[in-house]
Amino acid sequence: MQHGVGGGGGAAGWGQPGPQPSVPPQPPMAPAQGWPGSPPPQSPPQQPPHPPHQPLHQHHQHHQHHQSQPVPAVPEATGHIPLPPAVPGTGGAVLAVLLIGPAGAGKTTVARHWASTRPVPTAHVSLDDVREWVCSGFADPQAGWNEHSEAQYRLARRTCGFAARNYLANGISCILDDAVFPDRPVVGLGGWKRHVGPNLLPVVLLPGLEIVLERNAERSGNRRLSDEEVARIHGRMAGWYGSGLPIIDNTHLDVEGTARALDEALARALSAPGGWTP
Fold it and tell me: Own/partner pairs for 31-36, CB < 8 Å, 24+ apart?
């Protein structure tokens, strides 16, 4: 027996078709999990964590703030320091001075006095003092000039140059003293300019031989040289005449007078056209 599509069956309790009570429409039910023929449930995609919401204008200002901040340049602490332009006199100028002279010329005494009487901060660095920092193993040139004494002199000059650059970088003038020979420009004046900088101002202190011998005789320890060695060094220093460097003959000058002569020589060098270029 065939039934029409949609016809009622003979199930128990099933009556004949008739008027049906009105039932409010129900929303469709989601298919139950595991219902045959339904697609498997999908979990929502995972989003990466992000900071709390920030208003657009604030985010834009924050971005501009980071872009507008310049990166500060890191100065080179141990490079050559550009000194201020030359000005008349030396009262307030930041200077790098090298006082040259033979043993017994009074370099250390004059340099210390000149540095201590300036109206602006000024340091004095003595090559002999730095050289004698070496205690055990000190290579005394009086015992004979050899590779060890030569190496310790080179080390002391580099150390003095490093100290001078640090003083200059902090606005403190510096005066150094050394027996620099004119016939050794590479390790002499040229070497000092490499260590300290091209604006180094060299001045030669050269009294007469009699004064140098007399002052050397008053020395003691490893700083006292033989008369023959003093005369030999003094003769080599005479080569600075004609070099263009300022030369001070302090044969008849005391310490104060020599310091004044040094300041005058430096003032003339600074006021020269184009500065001092020996």
Answer: none
Dump pLDDT digits (tens) for 44-90.
555 555 555 555 445 445 445 445 555 444 444 445 556 544 444 56
Query: Which residues are within 8 A (CB) of 269 and not within 5 positions of it... i.e. 6 or more apart?
Result: 201, 203, 246, 275, 276
**Which pair of tokens denotes residue 156?**
């002391």
The answer to the question of residue 71 being in a domain is no
Q: What is the mean pLDDT of the chain?
A: 75
Residue 238 has pLDDT above 80, yes or no: yes
Best CA proximity match to 223, nearest among 150, 130, 153, 142:
142
Q: What is the β-pairing status of strands 247-248 and 173-178? A: unpaired
Domain count, the chain: 1
Strand stretches in the chain, DSSP E: 96-100, 122-126, 173-178, 201-205, 247-248
Contact of 175 with 109, CB cutoff 8 Å = no
Residue 216 · residue 230 · CB < 8 Å? yes
Q: Which amino acid is present at 117?
A: T
Helix, strand or coil, per DSSP, at residue 62: helix
Nearest Cα to Cα of residue 258 among 123, 94, 105: 105
Kindly report the CATH number assigned to the domain that includes residue 252. Answer: 3.40.50.300
Mean pLDDT of 184-191: 74
Q: Is the pLDDT assigned to residue 222 strictly greater than 90?
A: no
Percent of the chain with pLDDT over 90: 34
Structure token digits, residue 20: 């049906």
CA distances from 17 to 5, 9, 21, 170, 187 (A): 13, 11, 12, 109, 124
Please check whether residue 21 lies inside any domain of the structure.
no
Residue 218 lies in a domain: yes
Q: For residue 6, list its beta bridge partners.
A: none
